[in-house]
Amino acid sequence: MPFRYPITIIVGVVEATIHGKKKLVIGKDGDQPQGRTLKDDLKFFKDTTVGNVVVVGRKTEDAIEKALGHSLCDRDTFILTRDKSYVPKERCKVLCSTHAVSIVNEISKTRDVYVIGGGQIYELFFPHVNRLLITHIDMNISDGDTFFPDIDPHDWRVKKLHCHEANGRNKYQFWIGEYTRKPRF
Ligand SMILES: NC(=O)c1ccc[n+]([C@@H]2O[C@H](COP(=O)([O-])OP(=O)(O)OC[C@H]3O[C@@H](n4cnc5c(N)ncnc54)[C@H](OP(=O)(O)O)[C@@H]3O)[C@@H](O)[C@H]2O)c1
């Protein structure tokens, strides 16, 4: 049986130099830098997450609902919020607790879990996951307001899964990498 990665972070990043420092930009003004311009990346995201559990921050969930008119279909969505009066859409559940990471860990014993952002939720889960699926997007950006945590190359092995040229389906060239955390001694 193949090794299971119970919790995976899935994210699209644009590498940029901001104030002289290399950063992985994931958001600007509430949207992703690439918007919805990479059809093959959107397909990869859907194919990977459908049928599984997704964990999402309330702000990203709001943006998804605004863009699509509904939550992500065919996935069990857990929304993180500190607002105890938050009413989720159908099929979505709310994680309000300070024990959100332990609860997600418990869920991941029986289900594959994908952490789908945004910035605050990636920060929260990054130290606890052993697998990242990162779409590296080749676009120029000089700013951004939401970032992915720094990835120390000593801690991770990287396997290229897909490379895509810019074309009619994809506005920018991109590649998708699977990062697995090296054993911690
Ligand atoms: N590039 C990508 O792949 C990607 C993917 C997803 C999102 N994004 C981008 O990321 C940006 C949004 O990220 P963000 O950091 O602003 O917001 P976010 O992580 O989506 O959501 C933040 C919200 O999550 C809740 N939250 C945070 N920590 C929590 C905890 N420990 N327990 C319970 N609830 C908690 C709070 O909700 P309440 O305020 O309701 O309490 C908080 O305001 C957007 O620009 C979006 O486009 C990019």
Which overall shape is indicated by the principal axes computed on the Cα atoms?
globular
How would you name the CATH homologous superfamily? Dihydrofolate Reductase, subunit A
Largest sheet: 10 strands, mixed
Low-confidence runs: none
Structural class by helix and strand composition: alpha/beta
Report the average pLDDT across residues. Answer: 95
Query: What is the helix tally?
Result: 4
CATH class: Alpha Beta
The helix-strand sequence is EEHEHEEHEHEEEE
Quick rundown:
Helices cover 20% and strands 34% of the residues. The chain is α/β, with parallel strands linked by helices.
Defining traits:
185 residues; alpha/beta; Dihydrofolate Reductase, subunit A; 10 strands; binds NADP nicotinamide-adenine-dinucleotide phosphate
